[in-house]
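User: structure tokens for this one?
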Amino acid sequence: MSQIPDTAYEASLKSLETENYIDRLFYRPVGFHIAKWLSHTGITPNMVTVFSIFVGSAAGPLFYYDSIYFTLTGILCLVSANLLDCVDGQLARLTNTKSKIGRILDGLAGDIWFFVIYVLLALRLKNEYGTWLFFIPAVLSGLSHLVQANVTDYYKTLHLYFISREKGYEFQNYDDVCMEYQQMKRGIGKVLFRFYLVYTSLQEALTPKLQKMLNHLHDKYGNDFPENIRMDFRRNSKKLMNEYIDWMTFNGRTFILFLSVLAGMVWIYFIFEILILNLVLFLSIHKHEHICTALLLKDETNGFRN
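Assistant:
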């Protein structure tokens, strides 16, 4: 395999516009150098993803114990797993081995980390307070997390789509995903793809005004949206990501998770997940739908093409 130059760093990213500050400062640069090294080893992106599942899931049992040593080790495991989560995507882009199954597996990896964490945090609270009732907020946190991560991924992928068709190639509507699913042969790939089908269905159900805007733009312009429409949407979308949506990413939620386990008050994280992040989710959808309505009205009233 040919040598990958250091200048390929930006090519290893989906887009700098969708990366938050901590990713740009730490995870992506370090991930690039690891991915660059792995590109010569025969290790595939999916191998990295599977390994990250074991590393990230180890944080759950470590957070179970009220010990600074175990807590710091759990934090290290989760940070390492997220670094590997960056590496698999960057490796796939550097080696041109991107795949739909890889993307689905990548999304499931993070869900598995936090599923294990929520279960072990609930068990820890049960042992501390003598009641199984803490499994209720654990379940609510898990369900909330799934929806928040779903919407966050959707908005970031949509932003990429408005940068260019090449950057946003992963952005699909439910009908296209359903058709692709029906054409797949039976196997583990089709089983995983069914999760993606449900995933896409929920994304569209939560964003009716976005769907109306996209239908209008596709009907009027096909896939060739005018550049000023793209720039208008990206400007508002990026502002919303910086102010709200990035709080629902790994970096946003783990900041509070790490503080709560270090303080020995893990119930704080459940409150943050259920109350604060769901409020952020609601505001993000509300404001994003407003952006889409305004763009649609602007195009219907004045048009974007001269």
